[in-house]
Amino acid sequence: MKLKPSFQISSILLFVLFFTTYSINTVEAQRLKAGPQDLSFFSLVDDADQPYAVYIPDNFDESRQYPLVVFLHGAYSNHRLGLRRLFGVGNSQGYDFIKPGTVPYENDVEATRYWPPLRPVDYIAAAPYARGTAGYQGIPEQDVYEMIDDLKSRFLIDEDRIYLTGLSMGGGGTLWLGLTRPDIWAAIAPVCPAPPEGTTELAGNAFNLPVHLFVGDKDFLYPVASGWKAKLETTAQRLDYIEYPGVGHNSWEWAYKDGFIFEWFSQFKRDMYPEQVKFSSRWFRYNKAYWVKFDDLVPGQMATIDARFTGNNRIEVQTTGLGAFTLNLEGHPMFDAAKKVSLTVDGRSFSVKSAGAVSFTKTRGSWANRKFTPGLTAKQPGGEGPISAAVAGSHLYVYGTGGDPSREELAARRAQATAAADWMGRGGRIMVFPRVISDQQVRQSDYVTSNLILFGTRETNAIIEKFADRLPMHLDAGTGDYGLLYIYPMNRHYLLISSGLPWWTSPKQAAREQSLTFMGSNIEMLKEFGDFILFRESPDNVISQGTFDNEWKLANSDAAALQSSGVISLR
Predict the structure, then answer these.
(1) What are 75-79's contacts with CB under 8 Å, separation 24+?
(2) What is the span of the domain harbouring residue 152?
(3) Cβ proximity of 466 and 442 under 8 Å
(4) Confidence of residue 522 (pLDDT cuts 50, 70, 90)
(5) What share of the chain is helix, strand, coil (3-state, %, to 5)?
(6) Which CATH number covers residue 239?
(7) pLDDT at 30
(8) In this structure, are residues 345 and 360 in contact, taking their beta carbons and an 8 Å threshold?
(9) 155, 123 in Cβ contact below 8 A?
(10) Does the pLDDT at position 141 exceed 50?
């Protein structure tokens, strides 16, 4: 039957109307609601979604940029409680049915189950779960930045107005993340901070960073916070400090009250081109601040730079412990690419033509206007160690099946690798779930995506044997009283070799667990080592330990000490 033209036109119009309505409704349905809610990003560390809490302003306009506040929760807490704390909302009081007439505070589990009303602010705010009570170094630190990347993929974020704050463990994380990468943040606000070891020496990196520090004078962490006050008074661009009399380790109840922190942050905007940059670092992974970049240093040794414009196209630079650096000047208001740049580097004068970047390399103790190019095997970002770097990203624990082991021996090897993979910490199970597999189960894709933690020797682990001719050392078979642990780069990832006794064989382990650490004790111990350690009976009885040089070679003295042990074969 042939349809009339009018019917055909009507059908087409109805179809267009239905499709348009469906499309609009679909788009509307995909938009996130205003207020607090949960999101996640996919982490390649263990191929799992990682949750975070986010606040979206009322009347959210997807066409405009918003400032972002990142909140780092404390120990024994989580992302949902963290977002509540940021908005000054604590645990509520409620009627006690067991003891009528009393009004106890709800516990954290009860408070986590729902979102209370939050004070309206014109910010996007986010709090990562960051694996639980795990501190904010390594994998949790990576989670923070991956969360920010995920937020940037969803919203228009004003990158000059990204702020960082947190309490207790998260206050320490605020100092660590703020000072290792100061040019990410417009301002930071640590509350009763518990910073990780090594943070204090980075206080000078706050030279262009406003800081607000909060603490109660009855807090057990008061000595830590007061020490930071003394340091930041001389190093931070601006330090605001509040000390609450009679308050213990709960100063966040006052610090975040009535939206104060949002008001304080609103004063500041990041300046990517300050007149002067002061920056210190021990690691390639933290090699940049504003318009200064470290190109060559000795990992584990502090390198510093003080670079400042003394006039248009005039720069004075002072360094210590630095082998090469680049000044990225394009965009700086005091730089004119049409004119030469006059520089003084550690007292030596240069006049150079630059289109936007100026590089210097030190050769035999003297600076030259030359770009540094690392060798293929040189230490560099992503390939610098130390041992703890092997578990700071995606990694697998691999036990060996070689040597015709008995069923009991194979079970013992698997149990050793499983023990290393147990990230039990102070706050319970840390949410890191790397795989434990045998050397026969390693796939080609694993070499591409992950660091491999290899247990055994070349005789018992096929992966160690696979790379044996490229590895710098091996523990001889049958040396039951010794343990060898070292990191080595391979295929743009790391191999961590654990031969003989495991690294956590230590009589000091009980004392170590009582210190202010957050990750599981087996993982925390790795932070104590450089690039390699050979021990007898336990890591408290060191035969030799240290770092490889920048070409991943052993110093002659280290090689001699290892060889004299009688249990090490060197390449």
Answers:
(1) 75/133, 75/168, 75/169, 75/194, 75/426, 75/427, 75/518, 76/108, 76/133, 76/427, 77/108, 77/133, 78/108, 78/112, 78/129, 78/132, 79/38, 79/51, 79/52, 79/53, 79/127, 79/128, 79/129, 79/130
(2) 35-265
(3) no
(4) confident
(5) 25, 30, 40
(6) 3.40.50.1820
(7) 43
(8) yes
(9) no
(10) yes
- Whether 128 contacts 50, CB under 8 Å: yes
Which H, E and C letters describe 76-110, residue by residue?
A: CCCHHHHHHHHCCCCCCECCCCCCCCCCCECCHHH
**Are both 97 and 231 inside the same structural domain?**
yes
Residues, the chain: 571
Has residue 412 been placed in a domain?
Answer: yes
Q: What is the spatial distance between Cα 222 and Cα 433, in angstroms, rounded to a whole number?
A: 35
492 shares a domain with 564 = yes
Tens digits of residue pLDDT in 367-384: 999 999 998 889 999 999
Q: Residue 281: is its pLDDT beyond 80?
A: yes
- Cis status, amide bond into 100, omega within 30 of 0: no
User: Kind and range of the H or E element at 420?
Assistant: helix 407-420
> How far is the C-alpha of 275 from the C-alpha of 290, rounded, in Å?
10
Q: What is the pLDDT of residue 407?
A: 97
Tens-digit pLDDT profile for residues 69-86: 999 999 999 999 999 999
Whether the full predicted model's pTM is greater than 0.85, yes or no, is yes
**Domain assignment of residue 15, yes or no:** no
Residue 182 three-state SS: helix
Residue 12: partners with Cβ closer than 8 Å, 6 or more residues away:
none
**What are the b/e assignments for 509-530, b being 16+ CB within 10 Å?**
beeeeeeebbbbbbbbbbbbbb
All residues at 6 or more sequence positions from 398 whose CB lies less than 8 Å from its CB, including other chains: 417, 436, 437, 438, 439, 442, 452, 453, 454, 455, 461, 463
